[in-house]
Amino acid sequence: MTTQETSAAPLGLRERKKRQTRDRIRREAYRLFAEHGYEATTVDHIAEAAEVSPSTFFRYFPTKEDVVIQDEYDPALAEALRARPADEPIVDAILQALNGPMGRMLEQDREALLLRSRITFTDPAIRARSVGEQERSEREIAAIIAERSGRDASDLDVRCAAAAIIAVFTTLVRHWVEGGGTEDLAELYARHLPLLSRGLEF
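Above: the chain's sequence. Below: its structure in token form.
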């Protein structure tokens, strides 16, 4: 998952309007993807449905792929983890984050997340892009582990721990998608992430 910058400070009118436009473009894109399929939906279709020009679309999303790839989950998780006690094991901190606003975000976005994840796992171009995004997510988690543990983010143990966490996330989302999204994703995380605690010291 890639990110758009978020801020805890209140948004001004201009920023609120920009966010509303971005959300409308994304919402209409997901609706069209669901109705017509990802490949059959063009940028022009999305722009028309969102009542913006194609040039406006490209100001918010560089490509159609970015509508699927961009989200706010990584910065939300990072913010939640940095708010947890530094001596709390990283897996416990993640579970606590998922038990709060992060979990509610996943539930609110369930249908869109299911569609996005299904496209990510099946579209070759987006799958290729997602590899780089997974590596970026690993670096973000490694940086947080390093901050909390006092070790360097380049420490191989830290990097392996971050990679393991992201791998479990990816595996659980894939399982969730394969099951049609009928299970509670936050509960899947709560049930299976603790497996990492048996082998991770962070």
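The mean pLDDT is 90.
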